[in-house]
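User: Second chain of the day. Same drill as before.
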Amino acid sequence: MNTTDTAHSQFVVPPGFTTVPTPATDVVVPEAFSRWDPGQRRGYLAQRAINAAEGRTVAYAYDCVSRSTRSDQRRDPLDTAATMVSASMALSRRGAFRLVATAIELTERLPLTATLLTTGWIGVDAAHAIAEETALVEDRLMPELDRRISEGLAPTRRRTHPPRIGPLRKMLSKHIASCDPVGADARAQQARREQNVKMTPVTGDLALLTATLSAADGLEITERIEALVRTAATDDPRSIGQ
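Assistant: Same format as last time:
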């Protein structure tokens, strides 16, 4: 049985939800799904299927780690796995390493949360965010943190869509601080020391402005910019990006 099948078999469908078969796997949907408008059903099911497919890429990356660990004791298995993932999925070296790291974190340390990926509830972007936020938490604290994260993400009668990345990161920060207050405080202090804003000239009269901020500050700035964009007149010739 592969990693995806193992994780899927552990998922308990919550009250108010059911599973719908797709060509590759069953995905979780609200029981009211059958009464929705056909267009809404197609869009919702398409997103669940995309997320489940992304879950299979995570499972594949972990399989690459397992195979490289068994087949070559001399080379770093993560390096070998990243090479395999990069070649087979046409990912950059950085993207392949990120997928491998996420696969290890979810499979080995966040098995309950991983089931939400394999059933199509969350996608790989959410998986990356979860893996990166929890990577420095000690192993002994992970079972409780995994439980809290999976419960905070899982579908409920009131939660028929997974949270967006901004609210997800806020939730992760809260649970990590609760489970690992000492470590969370040390990491927060280090992150504050690394905050910075840089401006890099590009071509012509353009410049690239980059900022390393706290997640809360970044989210607030983004929301304010989006609010300002919405105040533009309907006949404003500029694009949303401008």
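Confidence is low (pLDDT under 50) at residues 1-9.

User: Great, on to the next one.
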